[in-house]
Amino acid sequence: MSERSERVIGDEALRGAPTWTPNPTELSDLELLLAGAYAPLGGFLGRDDLRSVAATSRLVDGRPWPLQVKLEVPAGMLDGIDVAEAPPLVLTDAEGAPIARLDVAEVWPTREGWCGVAGPVTAYGDGGRAPFDRLRVPTEHVREQLTAQRVLGYFADRPLHRPQLAQLNHAARQLNAQLVVLVPVGHPGPDGLTSESLVRCVLAARDRMNEPVIVAIPLTNRGDEVTDTLVRARVAAAYGATHLLGTANTMSGGGPRVLVPRELVYDSRDGQWRDRDEVPERFERIALTDEEIAGLLDDGLPLPEWHTPPAVARELSKARPPRRQRGVVLFFTGFSGSGKSTVARGVADALLETGERSLTVLDGDVVRRELSAGLGFSKADRDLNIRRIGWVAAETARHGGMAICCPIAPYASARANARAMATAAGADFVLVHVSTPIEVCEQRDRKGLYARARAGQITGMTGIDDPYEVPTDAELVLDTSEGSIDDAVDTVLVFLGEEGWINPRS
């Protein structure tokens, strides 16, 4: 049983304490704090430390620290509470199960309606469980397994093919080091690979490494390469790494020594991966790119054994089945009256006739009636409507179905969120922008909405008094004013066939 499963439950003193569910980034930080991976930190930082880290990458006491580890809660939660007498704050997971207690040491306003909270955290409750829980272990648990003087850390944020395994094993042999493989989880990996699939791929390569210690950590990229590099070095050091294989810069103020991987090629004479300078060009093969690997999997072709161990290839084939079998979200967006629902319905009818895909159609009007009744047309309500559509579509695609969605979806952020939910479900996402000009849409005005908006009878009409953010990431663009609906339907079907999601159209 892991130490995460040995938490004491039922502390009566905390039953009436205020509770809060942190956002995903804060939850990631919380788990790393509880695991000891953010040593020397023992909790969320206070205002002075946050300012110091932002300005100097150091804590107030001068110790190097690269990341603002902060927590915000609604201001109303702590109104009128004397910090000296404040009760502990119980932090919960997304399902409301307790994870930790935070002993409030400082509270300050951050932005309108919110305040920062600082203080030490300790594990509490039985929440925070996740797949491969046995691998999400505290740093001391890992350090107890380390017997070598040197420890090589490696962040496996993608599957381990033979080139990566050769680099890793070579470095470990050269150092005579024990190996700690850290697998970032909690967000999609390369090409939409789910966290669980990534862990399975790494475990499938376990027998290709010399007794590695494999740890799953909820490490979130912050979008800044330098910060992410320094955080990884800190986390690796907390898990006992003395060396780190990667292209990162050495962390200031101490930390693992960074080793840069060698450039390897496959020597077809003896089936080994060697330094490029050691192999004549006529006998070498270079590593496949991510795009080449994805293309083979999309087409249902086997990954070559010279490049990928069979056990890893099997896991990748399960995680990324051929497009013909993989779930997909076909998401139409455009003005009211653009023809998106008509085209979507035509695509659905054609696929229902062939029976080649399991379909769920999420039409904007039907969704408003069945799933989003009561929502208005404010930005917040529109975003919530698209979030609901995106969630249902992602769950449909998770199980290999095709979800066809056709809301207006005027805001880029909401469309991006729908795409992210599909990706997190291991599915594909195809955005179709039906770009019919608004003048044509107004002429059609089948529902009379534009006329009512022009007359001031309704507000929040996309294209009249509410914006439409034109997609810049659409896989397909249609304009139903330039051809028939049948032409548009055929264009979509041909595209889906050419890309492999359905049988090719003749």
Automatic annotation (TrEMBL):
<dbReference type="Pfam" id="PF01583">
    <property type="entry name" value="APS_kinase"/>
</dbReference>
<dbReference type="GO" id="GO:0004781">
    <property type="term" value="F:sulfate adenylyltransferase (ATP) activity"/>
</dbReference>
<dbReference type="GO" id="GO:0010134">
    <property type="term" value="P:sulfate assimilation via adenylyl sulfate reduction"/>
</dbReference>
<keyword id="KW-0067">ATP-binding</keyword>
<dbReference type="InterPro" id="IPR050512">
    <property type="entry name" value="Sulf_AdTrans/APS_kinase"/>
</dbReference>
<dbReference type="Pfam" id="PF01747">
    <property type="entry name" value="ATP-sulfurylase"/>
</dbReference>
<keyword id="KW-0418">Kinase</keyword>
<feature type="region of interest" description="Disordered">
    <location>
        <begin position="1"/>
        <end position="21"/>
    </location>
</feature>
<dbReference type="GO" id="GO:0005737">
    <property type="term" value="C:cytoplasm"/>
</dbReference>
<keyword id="KW-0597">Phosphoprotein</keyword>
<dbReference type="GO" id="GO:0005524">
    <property type="term" value="F:ATP binding"/>
</dbReference>
<comment type="pathway">
    <text>Sulfur metabolism; hydrogen sulfide biosynthesis; sulfite from sulfate: step 2/3.</text>
</comment>
<dbReference type="InterPro" id="IPR015947">
    <property type="entry name" value="PUA-like_sf"/>
</dbReference>
<feature type="compositionally biased region" description="Basic and acidic residues">
    <location>
        <begin position="1"/>
        <end position="14"/>
    </location>
</feature>
<dbReference type="GO" id="GO:0004020">
    <property type="term" value="F:adenylylsulfate kinase activity"/>
</dbReference>
<feature type="domain" description="APS kinase">
    <location>
        <begin position="326"/>
        <end position="479"/>
    </location>
</feature>
<dbReference type="InterPro" id="IPR027417">
    <property type="entry name" value="P-loop_NTPase"/>
</dbReference>
<feature type="domain" description="Sulphate adenylyltransferase catalytic">
    <location>
        <begin position="143"/>
        <end position="245"/>
    </location>
</feature>
<dbReference type="GO" id="GO:0019379">
    <property type="term" value="P:sulfate assimilation, phosphoadenylyl sulfate reduction by phosphoadenylyl-sulfate reductase (thioredoxin)"/>
</dbReference>
<keyword id="KW-0808">Transferase</keyword>
<protein>
    <recommendedName>
        <fullName>Adenylyl-sulfate kinase</fullName>
        <ecNumber>2.7.1.25</ecNumber>
    </recommendedName>
</protein>
<keyword id="KW-0547">Nucleotide-binding</keyword>
<dbReference type="InterPro" id="IPR025980">
    <property type="entry name" value="ATP-Sase_PUA-like_dom"/>
</dbReference>
<comment type="function">
    <text>Catalyzes the synthesis of activated sulfate.</text>
</comment>
<dbReference type="InterPro" id="IPR002891">
    <property type="entry name" value="APS"/>
</dbReference>
<feature type="domain" description="ATP-sulfurylase PUA-like">
    <location>
        <begin position="16"/>
        <end position="110"/>
    </location>
</feature>
<dbReference type="InterPro" id="IPR059117">
    <property type="entry name" value="APS_kinase_dom"/>
</dbReference>
<dbReference type="InterPro" id="IPR014729">
    <property type="entry name" value="Rossmann-like_a/b/a_fold"/>
</dbReference>
<dbReference type="Pfam" id="PF14306">
    <property type="entry name" value="PUA_2"/>
</dbReference>
<dbReference type="GO" id="GO:0070814">
    <property type="term" value="P:hydrogen sulfide biosynthetic process"/>
</dbReference>
<comment type="similarity">
    <text>Belongs to the APS kinase family.</text>
</comment>
<dbReference type="InterPro" id="IPR024951">
    <property type="entry name" value="Sulfurylase_cat_dom"/>
</dbReference>
<feature type="binding site">
    <location>
        <begin position="334"/>
        <end position="341"/>
    </location>
    <ligand>
        <name>ATP</name>
    </ligand>
</feature>
